[in-house]
Amino acid sequence: MTDEHAHVRYLVDDVQAAVDFYTTHLGFTLLSSAVPAFADVVRGPLRLLLSGPASSAGRAMPDGAVPGAGGWNRIHLVVDDLDIEVTRLREAGVRLRNDIVTGPGGRQILLIDPAGNLVELFQPRR
């Protein structure tokens, strides 16, 4: 089986809030929805599966551990102008985890989605 998308699953507390965040602020398009359990959104080759507590991905593990939202893993979105994106997102009230960080490969900042999952915006060094 082949698919042109890379698939990433994020556990979220509120599927509709997650859909609204990714489609409104980050240019994703809704692919399918079974709110409140699940929705998936796409941006280019990335298919982001947004799984709520009522989804199969939210079920408890055999040892009793319950999957939850948040953590330090993140999707990484490349942008052309990080300063413009940060200004736009701040004006829209999007929560930022840190200030812009500059490293050897470029500049980055972390956003926080409504469930506490991180999204990295990255501008490569020119």
Automatic annotation (TrEMBL):
> Taking every annotated instance into account, which residue ranges of this chain make up the domain VOC?
4-124
Give the keywords, sorted.
Metal-binding
| Stretches that traverse the bilayer | none
Example GO molecular function: methylmalonyl-CoA epimerase activity
Q: Does the keyword Metal-binding belong to this entry?
A: yes
Coiled-coil regions listed = none
Q: Which GO terms describe its biological process?
A: L-methylmalonyl-CoA metabolic process
Pfam families recorded? Glyoxalase
Does the record carry Metal-binding as a key word?
yes
Q: Spell out the protein name for this chain.
A: VOC family protein
Organism, by scientific name, is Amycolatopsis carbonis
